[in-house]
Amino acid sequence: MIKENGTSDEDFILLSFSYLPNQRILFFLVFLVLYILTILGNATTILIICLDLQLHTPMYWFLCGLSFLDICNTCVTIPKLLVNLITRDGSISYLGCVAQVFIFDSLAGTECGLLAVMAYDRYLAICNPLHYMKIMTNRVCSTLIALPWLSGFLQSSINTPLTFQLSFCQSKILNSFFCEVPYLLKISCSAIYLNQIVLFGIGGLLSLSPFILTFVSYSLIIKSILKIPSAKSRSKAFSTCSSHLTVVSMFYGAAMFVYFRSASSYSMPFDRMMSLFYTLLTPLLNPIIYTLKNNNVKKAMLKLFHRKETLKYDF
After folding, report:
1. What is the DSSP letter of 238?
2. Domain enclosing residue 107, as ranges
3. Residue 246, class by beta-carbon neighbours within 10 Å (0-12 exposed, 13-18 middle, 19+ buried)?
4. Which of 83, 96, 102, 223 is the most exposed place for a label (fewest CB within 10 A)?
5. What is the pTM (predicted TM-score) of this model?
6. 254-260 contacts: CB < 8 A, separation 24 or more?
7. What pLDDT, in 10s, does the model give residues 104-158?
8. Domain at 43, CATH number
9. How many domains does the chain have?
10. Is 1 within a domain?
């Protein structure tokens, strides 16, 4: 049934930042700028890695995959937020909500796996450098890139149907700016005990497992670095993985805070900011963190800009 405001009985309502109506235009402009910077930053990272042959190594191919994921992740959530802010219409169709949950969960699960793969790559490079290239063949790299995608889509293929078989007989108002499983569970009038078990179980298997692998990899890396006699060599070794460690801490810190709690404990403003942190701010900061702490990427970037300047003057 279509109502007067254009919404139907099946639509969900995303509150977004409607509790601050006077700042609506300001939020729109800020999020639009951050969205554009996120896309440009990650696209530039991909372009630099693809164009510079010296960066055609497993570490940078994984970084390229992370940048692509960040672009996709941001495009799933932020455009709808921008539309809602400018139109003051927070509605999202039932099918649109299903699609958003499925794609976002898939990408989030993929990112968990890819971060673990990147940690394993750094472990091999630092703790087993002599055999690194023998182990990290093109076939192995392709497999390590594909597995997180398979894991992410498997996780979402279980969580999404299970979530939307619930009944939503209340107001269907989500205290979020996009459709997300924890907030859908909160407004359901069905028993969600099974959903929470599956959410924690699948999350534990497909999300915490990569986190444990990442933790173990960095424990071994730090143990190996501390055995290096030269302070300069220790600093150089640690700098090669500090960027990734920073990204892992930001991503898992915010995501675990939102997902691994009971549905009744969610609060509106703070949880919304935490969701914003891993959907927009982390993808925005990733290229900056990797660029500022990676001399090879900075050199490749300068080389690219210098090439553009040369072509401009030659023309």
Report:
1. H
2. 12-314
3. middle
4. 223
5. 0.84
6. 254/278, 254/282, 255/108, 255/207, 258/180, 258/182, 259/181, 259/182, 259/199, 259/203, 259/207, 260/200, 260/203
7. 989 988 988 998 899 899 888 888 888 888 889 889 999 999 999 998 898 888 8
8. 1.20.1070.10
9. 1
10. no
